[in-house]
């Protein structure tokens, strides 16, 4: 076995296996033959006794056979150390492959004795599954302009496009455009309004998302045709649960949507702008000026002039992480960093993914609200695009 010193060092470095006993060490092929080690130890003991008898205890170099024995004893200790390391690795692998560390122990349905699903474990945290759907808030209603975006027109020297949403249609909404510093130049633009079906995920009264557990292996079946066998919320899942924040619910459930929400989409194509000009704008239903955010942009220069742009990507906010680790906060941080680093950029490319599920307005609201500090002041081109640039 190891010396007391070596054992103490090993125990300090490997506290979880400090009491491990090696019953059958497996010596590495490079170690000395075990029989030679036994003989070396015996020879070392014999020589040591002889040295003590002749008073030559300090003269370790006086006997070649003694030096040889010490070397072999050191080799034995190294072999034992290697064997203990190998055994520790084996036991750790065995533990890692055991049930307590398995996917089954940390992820999956929880069943009772009657075969009923009573919980869902995701990333080691278990949400109880109940038969009755938790009481939900009413579907969201927002009649202030939201999800505002400003997009490049076909001719960025003279055009700019705007889009926003409200729940109910309101013909009083207009975009007011003016040359920055000159309110007398303001011009009102009337939007085109289009009926839109919003899709939002249900929330409980205290703000937790509701998920429907469906029959296993029916992930390709539309929700209306699925057999819902229970419900759970995101209340138990923490921000440290990386499986949950990586949309871990998708293996076991679906976010439960409200019935389609009737909303209104507004679009405006502003034309006739001056090249190389800084403009301010407001989107208002109360005339101009109004107590609403003021945005700004600069049109492209006439002719071939240098310009700056920002490229960023993959905000991909997933609604399911909002209460655990709000991904939209990272989008907001990115927007602030862009404005601090390149406040004079002419436009921005966001090449996706903007949100996790494009149909999910819960995600669009969170993401575009987080980015509005940037999107109010920098025209955007959204989408997954390939940029081919010839710089010479």
TrEMBL record:
Under the heading InterPro entries, the entry gives: Metallo-depent_PP-like, PAPs_N
Q: Which UniProt keywords apply?
A: Coiled coil
Q: Which SUPFAM superfamilies match?
A: Metallo-dependent phosphatases (SSF56300)
Q: Name one Pfam family in it.
A: Pur_ac_phosph_N
Q: Which residues form a coiled coil?
A: 69-96
Q: Which GO terms describe its molecular function?
A: acid phosphatase activity; metal ion binding
User: Where does the record place the Purple acid phosphatase N-terminal domain?
Assistant: 147-299
Its protein name is: Fibronectin type III domain-containing protein
């Amino acid at each position: 076995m190891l010396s007391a010193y070596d054992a103490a060092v090993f125990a300090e470095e490997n506290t979880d296996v400090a009491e491990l006993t090696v019953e059958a060490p497996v010596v590495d092929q490079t170690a000395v033959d075990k029989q030679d080690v036994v003989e070396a130890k015996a020879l070392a003991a014999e020589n040591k006794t002889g040295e003590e008898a002749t008073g030559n205890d300090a003269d370790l170099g006086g006997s070649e056979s003694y030096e040889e024995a010490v070397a072999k004893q050191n080799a034995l200790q190294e072999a034992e150390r290697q064997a203990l390391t190998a055994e520790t690795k084996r036991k750790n692998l065995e533990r890692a492959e055991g049930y307590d560390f398995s996917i089954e122990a940390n992820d999956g349905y929880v069943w009772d004795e009657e075969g009923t699903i009573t919980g869902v474990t995701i990333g080691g945290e278990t949400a109880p599954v109940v038969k009755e759907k938790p009481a939900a808030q009413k579907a969201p209603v927002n009649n202030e302009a939201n999800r505002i975006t400003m997009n490049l027109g076909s001719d960025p020297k003279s055009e700019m496009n705007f889009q926003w949403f409200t729940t109910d249609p309101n013909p009083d909404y207009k975009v007011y455009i003016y040359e920055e510093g000159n309110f007398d130049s303001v011009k009102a633009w009337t939007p085109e309004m289009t009926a839109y079906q919003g899709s939002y995920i249900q929330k409980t009264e205290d703000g937790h998302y509701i998920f429907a557990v469906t029959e296993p292996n029916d992930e390709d079946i539309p929700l209306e045709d699925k057999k819902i066998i229970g419900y759970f919320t995101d209340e138990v899942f923490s921000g440290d649960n990386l499986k949950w924040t990586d949309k871990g619910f998708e293996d076991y459930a679906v976010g439960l949507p409200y019935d389609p929400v009737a909303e209104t989409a507004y679009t405006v194509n502003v034309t006739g702008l001056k090249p190389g000009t800084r403009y301010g704008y407001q989107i208002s239903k109360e005339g101009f000026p109004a107590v609403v955010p003021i945005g700004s942009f600069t049109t492209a220069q006439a002719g071939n002039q240098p310009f700056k742009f920002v490229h960023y990507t993959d905000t991909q906010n997933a609604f399911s992480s909002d209460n655990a680790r709000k991904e939209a906060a990272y989008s907001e941080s990115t927007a602030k960093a862009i404005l601090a680093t390149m406040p004079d950029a002419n436009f921005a490319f966001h090449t996706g993914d903007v949100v996790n599920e494009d149909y999910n307005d819960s995600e669009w609201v969170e993401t575009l609200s987080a980015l509005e500090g940037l999107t109010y002041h920098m025209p955007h081109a959204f989408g997954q695009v390939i940029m081919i640039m010839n710089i010479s």
